[in-house]
Amino acid sequence: MPSYTPPLRDMQFVLHEVLNVVDELKMLPPYADIDADTINAVLEEGGKFCAEVIAPINLSGDKEGCQLDKTTHEVTTPKGFKEAYQTYIDGGWAALACDPAYGGQGLPLLVNQCFYEMLNSANQAWTMYPGLSHGAYECLHAHGTDEQKKLYLPKLTNGQWTGTMCLTEPHCGTDLGMLRTKAEPQADGTYKITGQKIFISAGEHQLAENIVHLVLARLPDAPAGSKGISLFIVPKFNVNADGSLGERNGIFCSGLEHKMGIHANSTCQMTLDGAIGTMVGQPNKGLAAMFVMMNTARLGVGNQSLGLTEVAYQNAVAYAKDRLQMRSLSGPKAPDKPADPIIVHPDVRKMLLTARAYAEGARALQAYTVLQADKSISSDDEDERKEAEAELALLTPIIKAFITDNGWIATSHCMQVYGGHGFIHEWGMEQFVRDARINMIYEGTNTIQSLDLLGRKVLGNNGATLKKFGKKIAAFIEEEGTNEAMQEFINPLADLGDKVNKLTQELGMKAFGNPDEVGAAAVDYLRVVGHMTFAYFFARMAKVALEKEGSGDPFYRAKLATARFYFAKLLPETASLIRTARAGLKPLMEMDEALF
Predict the structure, then answer these.
(1) Looking at residue 516, what is its pLDDT?
(2) d(CA 317, CA 517)
(3) pLDDT tens-digit profile of 532-541?
(4) Measuring CA to CA, which residue among 496, 401, 418, 409 is closest to residue 453?
(5) Closest Cα partner for 211 from 174, 168, 275, 160?
(6) Pick the catalytic residue: 138, 310, 443, 517?
């Protein structure tokens, strides 16, 4: 069975030594009293919960899966899941970053995101039960009426109730403008909602006493397409005016999906048969409200793959140090043993370092981005809020797509390190690979994220937001330009920055002539920009590590070695990506459809 050790030292390095988050957070009124000791203590205790409570039921939960009673429509989660959830809410973990006005602890989103990285490492399938509740909370906090907030937010905050997002239907996934679920207005101001939803994560379970479904549906007179979608709260049990639970609502699980991974999470087909719902926000404006939850989920999905990358790396390293196979090509490294541990072999090291680099780069990018989310919500400076909001919007598709693509690569590498044992369930590695694969698909496929980045976030405002972020990179390059020790990091970063600028301009001109050029280049483009962000944060981490290398702490030597590996072995991928992005539309479209 795999093991897990929370990477607290690296988290503390990123938060306190690279990003100096305490100084940043203290500038935000809600966090004026925050300090490093508080952050560290919360994450240390959170790490214990992850390692001791939910990691031990990950492998068994995957094997057991969920069970649906087709008569009652109730879903039973694997053994130990309900008890673990009770421990979670008893510990106050659900309320970590929620508004104190609704019973929350009022800590920064950043702290919650670090905690969730550890949860995802320990047990992604379990983590999805409370995970979507945060998105439902954020959506209602931003768009709910005072009455809706009073009824739902306290219970979502303390974890007594969980939340879901009900978007996808059998005939439409990403193209939500095609959805058919209907909402009929009632005399009392509620709506009767009828339709079918699929792929609803944590759609039914016995962990919490109620499930708050956020459902997209159409009013009878709604305009066609995405401009005719409204958002509704549809609880599993109707909620009385005093907050108590009423009768069972007409929304139920009519089937469980049999999936490649995340077996222990109930991915449900949900049937709505005259279910009672209340509208969130304005009629036909539901998609805008739901985007609060969707964007929260996209950051969360990137965090899922960061968690899986980290735990897969940890276990692959332990195996590589222990497994004896063959001798080093340059002569025995363990002459007292019948063979050398496989960690001496260059390609094994390449696979391990790839996973390590992708985990450490992702951790820095995630922390920086969620810090912008905290600023966008809590700053009392309107200009700072707007700038943070724009940067958050720019980096969200990169987090979702780049980190999840890398998670698939990294977990596959780590399984390869195990050889044949990696393909066997009891070792745990093949589960990490299977679980990681969904992260590239849901919450908007990675191609959709790439189109969002290039088409909307970059070309949509003529590259203004990307240029602002680029100025931060340029300022760092200028600051370190005369530091000889930093040239191995600064020079390739500066070179890639110039190439991204030129590529962006070139693609913008092509798209002006034919918008399909965006679709032809977007996936490669996102990966190039993803590497640029990783290179920036690895350069910043290297700067700190160089300054402290003489302290004798081996952590800094390891950080420098990882940064050097990233720049030497992973960043050069951008050269081929830029070339394929420039190859454009013609090679993709010139074959007649009949020839496929």
Answers:
(1) 97
(2) 42
(3) 999 999 999 9
(4) 401
(5) 160
(6) 443
Six-digit token pair at 27?
A: 């500038």
Catalogue the E-assigned strands of 74-156. 74-76
- Is the pLDDT confidence value at 291 over 90? no
Whether the predicted model's global pTM rises above the 0.85 cut: yes
Q: Cα-flanking dihedrals φ and ψ of residue 255, to 5°?
A: 180, 150
Cβ of 552: how many Cβ atoms within 10 Å? 8
* 129/205 Cα distance (integer angstroms): 9
Report which of 386, 340, 35, 85 is spatially closest to residue 209, judged by C-alpha positions: 85
pLDDT band at 289 (very low <50, low <70, confident <90, very high): confident
For residue 293, pLDDT over 90 is answered with no
Q: Spell out the residues 6+ positions from residue 382 whose beta carbon is closer than 8 angstroms to its own.
A: none
443 is catalytic: yes
| Mean pLDDT, residues 347-365 taken together | 98
264, 66 in Cβ contact below 8 A? yes
CB-CB contact of 358 with 407 (8 Å): yes
| Inter-residue contact 453 to 526 (CB < 8 Å) | yes
Query: CA 249, CA 245: separation in Å to the nearest integer?
Result: 10
In the block, residue with structure tokens 């363990």: 334
Read off the tokens for 67: 């069970």
Q: How far is it, in rounded angstroms, from Cα 442 to Cα 433? A: 16
Q: Average pLDDT of 85-103?
A: 97
Judging by DSSP bridges, how do beta strands 230-235 and 267-280 pair with one another?
antiparallel
Q: Is the pLDDT of residue 275 over 90?
A: yes
* Residues 22-69: tens digit of each pLDDT: 999 999 999 999 999 999 999 999 999 999 999 999 999 999 999 999
Structure tokens at 236: 């599993």
Is the pLDDT confidence value at 348 over 90?
Answer: yes
Give the N- to C-terminal CA distance of the chain in Å, as an integer.
Answer: 45
Under 8 Å between Cβ of 231 and 222: no
Q: What is the pLDDT of residue 288?
A: 87
Q: How far apart are CA 364 and CA 387, in angstroms?
A: 19
- Which 3 state secondary structure label does DSSP give 196? strand
Torsion from C-alpha of 482, 484, 490, 495, nearest 10 degrees: 80
pLDDT in tens, 489-517: 999 999 999 999 999 999 999 999 999 99
Classify each residue of 355-368 as buried b or exposed e, where b means 16 or more C-beta atoms within 10 Å of its C-beta: bbbbbbbbbbbbbb
Pairing of strands 74-76, 67-69: antiparallel
Would you state the pLDDT for residue 236? 98
H or E segment and range at residue 172: none
Strand partners, 165: 214
